[in-house]
């Protein structure tokens, strides 16, 4: 069947309305003190749930079949998403994360039992030794390990790739060399150009394509841009030197490979997971 995939969302923050126009990544989304995380700690489950339901309906309306959600809030956060998905035909690929920035083997096991893998903020937010333990645990369980990389500033790509990630998000402040290393490693990258633009960043999508990186497209934080992958694709076509064929591959054929890479992710069959 034809699939349409939004490869990077955080629909848990859809309930947040931003009261000013200019934010840095650090101020808004970096854990643990970014505004988003403060708001999510204060919010009731009902508020988060209602926001998620709205985001899910936006995705349904634009024909999305699958979305990869970076689900904050540990086991509890995943449970809210599952509740929000009740009655929806969308397939959520759930990438959970520990409540705190540290490795706890029991917590990771509990998260992996009810999700498709782990999706983390970035190596810069974590103690690298702790992060290595998380990545090794996830890889051993053959689940997905995804992480934001070089979003607002350049991070050490070799340290990131040593974690054996299945998917990187952004690479919007990476160097050309970094992009070539990622292409050689065969790790797909999900780009979110509207979210980057919100923070005044322009990802070098043209070079990513030139290097031969398998690119996916996502809408990132729902509080920044509605999770409408068709709008994201139109934005991409308007602002980057990308053909319609390349853009379509980013929401169909390329993510299909990720969905098929033995990550226990079933194809769309109308069932919620
Ligand atoms: Zn993100």
Question: What features would you describe in this structure?
Answer:
This protein is 43% helix and 15% strand. The chain is an alpha/beta fold and 273 residues long. The chain has a 9-stranded parallel beta sheet with strand order 8-7-6-5-4-3-2-1-9, with helices on both faces. Residues 262-273 have low confidence and may be disordered. Bound molecules: zinc ion. Zinc ion binds next to strand 1.
Give the SSE layout:
Elements: E1 5-10, H1 25-29, H2 35-42, H3 45-61, E2 66-71, H4 74-84, E3 91-96, H5 105-113, E4 117-120, H6 128-140, E5 144-149, H7 157-161, E6 167-170, H8 176-185, E7 189-191, H9 193-198, H10 205-211, E8 215-217, E9 220-221, H11 229-239, H12 244-251, H13 253-260
Parallel strand pairs: 1-2, 1-9, 2-3, 3-4, 4-5, 5-6, 6-7, 7-8
The structure holds zinc ion.
Which keywords apply here?
273 residues; alpha/beta; 13 helices; 9 strands; disordered C terminus; binds zinc ion
* Class derived from helix and strand content: alpha/beta
Query: Could you report the average pLDDT, rounded to the nearest whole number?
Result: 93
* Global geometry: globular
What is the number of helical segments per DSSP (H or I, 4+ residues)?
13
The CATH architecture term is Alpha-Beta Barrel
User: What order do the helices and strands follow?
Assistant: EHHHEHEHEHEHEHEHHEEHHH
As laid out across the biggest beta sheet, the strand order is 8-7-6-5-4-3-2-1-9
**Count of structural domains:** 1
Give helix % range.
40-55%
User: How far apart are the termini?
Assistant: 18 Å
The molecules bound to the chains, other than polymers, are: zinc ion
Largest sheet: 9 strands, parallel
CATH topology: TIM Barrel
Strand content: 5-15%
Radius of gyration: 17 Å
Which CATH class? Alpha Beta
Total beta-strand segments: 9
Unreliable runs: 262-273
| CATH superfamily annotation | Metal-dependent hydrolases
């Amino acid at each position: 069947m034809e699939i349409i995939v939004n490869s990077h969302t955080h629909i848990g923050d859809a309930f947040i309305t931003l009261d000013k126009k200019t934010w840095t990544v650090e101020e808004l989304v970096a854990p643990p003190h970014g505004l988003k995380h403060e708001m999510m700690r204060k919010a009731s489950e009902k508020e988060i749930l209602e926001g998620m339901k709205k985001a899910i309906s936006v995705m349904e309306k634009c024909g999305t079949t699958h979305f990869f959600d970076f689900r904050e809030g540990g086991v509890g956060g995943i449970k809210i998403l599952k509740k929000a998905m009740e009655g929806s035909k969308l397939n959520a690929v759930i990438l959970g994360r520990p409540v705190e920035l540290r490795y706890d083997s029991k917590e990771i096991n509990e998260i992996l039992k009810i999700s498709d893998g782990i999706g983390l903020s970035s190596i810069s937010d974590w103690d690298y030794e702790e992060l290595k333990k998380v990545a090794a645990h996830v890889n051993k369980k053959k689940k997905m390990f995804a992480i934001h990389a070089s979003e607002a500033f350049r991070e050490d790509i070799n340290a990131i790739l040593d974690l054996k990630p299945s998917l990187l998000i952004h690479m919007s402040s990476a160097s050309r060399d970094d992009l070539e290393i990622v292409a050689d490693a065969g790790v797909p990258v999900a780009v979110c150009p509207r979210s980057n633009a919100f923070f005044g960043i322009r990802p070098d999508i043209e070079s990513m394509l030139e290097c031969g990186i398998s690119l996916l497209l996502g809408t990132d934080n729902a509080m920044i841009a509605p999770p409408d992958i068709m709008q994201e694709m139109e934005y991409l076509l308007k602002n980057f030197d990308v053909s319609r064929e390349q853009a379509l591959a980013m929401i169909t054929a390329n993510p299909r490979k990720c969905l098929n890479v033995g990550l226990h992710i079933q194809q769309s069959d109308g069932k919620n997971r």
